[in-house]
Amino acid sequence: MRSRWRRFDAPPRLAGIDLARGLAVIGMIAAHLLVIDAFDPGDPATWIDVANGRSSILFATLAGVSIALVTGGQRPFRGARRARASARIALRALLLWAIGLMLVATGVPVYVILPAYAILFLLSLPFLGMRPPALFLLAAVVGVVMPFPQALWDAAPFWSTPDGLTVAALIGWQYPFPVWIAFLLAGMAIGRTDLRSPRTAALLLAAGAALAALGYALAAVSGAGVVAESQSILGAVWTARAHSSGVLEVVGSGGFAIAVIGLCLLVCATALRWVAVPLRAVGSMPLTAYVVQLVAWAVVAASVLGATGDLSGFRALDPFWPMTLALILACTAWTLLIGRGPLEAVIARLSTWAVREPARAGGVGRLEG
User: Which site in 70, 115, 185, 356 is 20 to 30 Å from 64, CA atoms measured?
Assistant: First the structure.
């Protein structure tokens, strides 16, 4: 257990990144399983609406952080090391895509993020050598520009046809990569900074909060909303609605994700890191946690309801707290008694086995998220 604890809590792991991942996973579970009213600042019962859309964007942003960390962190790999890292990322993308399709096949009525996640992994490859300023700039350009063609593509009748629905499931079109690559690039830029510095964490928190305030304030004062979205392409672009991929969602929810990462890094630089251990444990194995909760959903729904696709029937069972607490306890126990998450370990071993280090390379240190 001592060795497991050292791997979990000591460098090179970043406790704040694990905490942010854990929050993203729990947020996605909440968005799936809870019936949530629209956000009303005056009604605390609606504040859980913050999980809608933002959890998955946080998850995608953290994917960029992880990619940056495993490809050199502040000093991006070059030459043969980058080539090997790129090959491993490509293989992991293929494995994630396959796992995602298996989850889609369960019939659980959620938009599975893993196919889109896999495509984003592949799209990251040309940018592995870029430094933070260039990555942040590129993320900003993509985030502001791509919602416009995305709105046109989404309006195409093809997506309402059976073939369109199949293609959408295969590529995770509900998390459209032409826009969502902005979140990945922003995460990669974050992962290329000094994440052990309190100054970096404070800057991320301040910048993210400013972007979130800007995006949501513009939505509030400009008349953006569902009615405007239905009236024109410009209306469909100028929105902060969750899962809209509108420019205001990119700015607001993207800023929210950056702020959460900065806040989690700051929290885990204090004694609160010990209080956060259970959520950090979930975040240390996010793929396992995400897959397990959907598989458990499929098994319970099939057993109790006779079908996996009955969303309202499954929500009526009030499954959120039992499933979430069981997941947190299981991840914590696994972390302390066994170590790395099972799916994370399998994928890492497969990618390392398929793309091996040269015999002369010896031991090479690694950065972990």
Answer: 356
